[in-house]
Design goal:
Elements: E1 2-9, H1 15-29, E2 35-42, E3 49-56, H2 59-66, H3 69-81, E4 88-93
Helix pairs in contact: 1-3
Amino acid sequence: MTTVGMDYRVLPGKERVFEDAFRNVLKALEGAEGHRRSRLYREVEAPAVYLILSEWDDAEAFKAFIESDRFRRVTDWGLDQVLAARPVHTVYWT
C-alpha cells in the first residue's frame, strides 16, 4: 500500500469552494484503479491550509491517476480559481 500526503494552500475566502471541489474529486476517485480511500484535513491554526491523505494499492496506481486528464483538469482549475500555490505531494510507502 502507498499513502500520499497532498498539501494545499487555498486563497483566503476560497475554503468552501476547495472543500466542495474535494467532494467532487472523491466521486472521481471512486472509479480510480487502485484507490482505497482519501480524507481531507484542515489545519486548526491556519484554516486555508489543507492536507489530503490518500491510500492506494501502490505508487503506480497513484501516478496513473495524477497523470490523467481528469486530475489535470481539476488541478488546472484549482490553480486558476482557488489555490495560492501548486500542491506539494509526499509519498509514503507502507
